[in-house]
Amino acid sequence: GAVRKGPSRPPAYLTFEDIGGQEQAKRELVEALDFLVQRERIAKLGIRPLKGILLTGPPGTGKTLLAKAAAKHTNSAFVAASGSEFVEMYVGVGAGRIRDIFRQARTLAAKQKRDSAIIFIDEIDAIGGKRDGSQNKEYDQTLNQLLTEMDGIQGDESVRVLIIAATNRKELLDNALTRPGRFDRHIQVDMPDRHGREHILRLHARNKPLAEEVSLDKVAEETFGFSGAQLESVMNEAAIYAMREESEVLRPAHLAQAIDKVMMGERMDRETTS
Ligand code: ATP
After folding, report:
1. What is the 3-class SS of the chain, one letter each residue?
2. What is the ipTM of this complex?
3. Does the CB atom of residue 200 touch ligand 1 within 6 A?
4. Which residues contact residue 135 at a Cβ distance below 8 angstroms, ignoring those fewer than 6 apart?
5. Which parts of the sequence belong to the AAA+ ATPase domain (predicted)?
6. Cα(16)–Cα(28) distance, rounded to whole angstroms?
7. Ligand 1 pocket, residue 49 CB under 6 Å
8. What's the pTM value of the predicted model, to 2 decimals?
């Protein structure tokens, strides 16, 4: 059959156009980022600088992609860490790492001659879970250091720092983190709907030759409940099936097999963790 081919390579820099679906999250994020872009006007009006944005939603829905696109959109330096990296046995290590990452973000921005930096912290609940008095001291120190760093952010520094954090479970976060002046912007990142799924599939098909009979619209319909990460897997697995059959194009059967495989993998994950 004829081959439909997209551009041969995904773009080197991630932008909002490279994220499928999530229209509302993107809109809300761009609106919030305006605070970084329009910093002079914001300062003139005496509006307090935006310091933290919290992205909430299930795994694999594109929270990391959104943070990266935010950096691109605002021409900011980008530094990323995962909350679980800060959880250490020794007192003071986690707090020291928080200090380092803020320093690193400012240094990188200066080196890249940018006037803003975005720090992305995935799994923020690992450091910012509710304090009930039973946790160890280390954990408290790490969270306290993060709060101190955030409180120390000024609107008029040569490098403006913005923290974007992600969590699957917003309800577990300590109230100290979500107070005004900290993570006071919350953006929900949901599982994609059918339209969103088709968009995501299209993006991940950009570098793959599809047989003419393939209908991504139909694939989107058949992948109800799949996350963006799972849809990426579907496209990748389909390409692997095509390769095994020495086919130069991805055919509908390859996609059907890939959907089954990803669905099966998901079920096995659930069974082994529950
Ligand atoms: P986690 O909570 O598990 O860290 P996440 O929400 O940060 O997940 P990402 O790391 O952004 O998810 O997504 C994982 C991968 O899944 C991406 O690298 C991308 O390939 C794919 N993906 C997820 N969502 C989308 C989307 N909306 N558009 C395009 N690709 C997506």
Report:
1. CCEECCCCCCCCCCCHHHCCCCHHHHHHHHHHHHHHHCHHHHHHCCCCCCCEEEEECCCCCCHHHHHHHHHHHCCCEEEEEEHHHHCCCCCCHHHHHHHHHHHHHHHHHHHCCCCEEEEEEECCHHHHECCCCCCCHHHHHHHHHHHHHHHHCCCCCCCEEEEEEEECCHHHECHHHHCCCCEEEEEECCCCCHHHHHHHHHHHCCCCCEECCCCHHHHHHHCCCCCHHHHHHHHHHHHHHHHHCCCCCECHHHHHHHHHHHHHHHHHHHHHHC
2. 0.96
3. yes
4. 129
5. 49-193
6. 12
7. no
8. 0.90
Residues, the chain, total?
A: 274
Neighbours of 244 (CB within 10 A): 10
What is the residue type of 50? L
pLDDT tens-digit readout, 161-198? 999 999 998 888 888 899 999 999 999 999 999 999 99
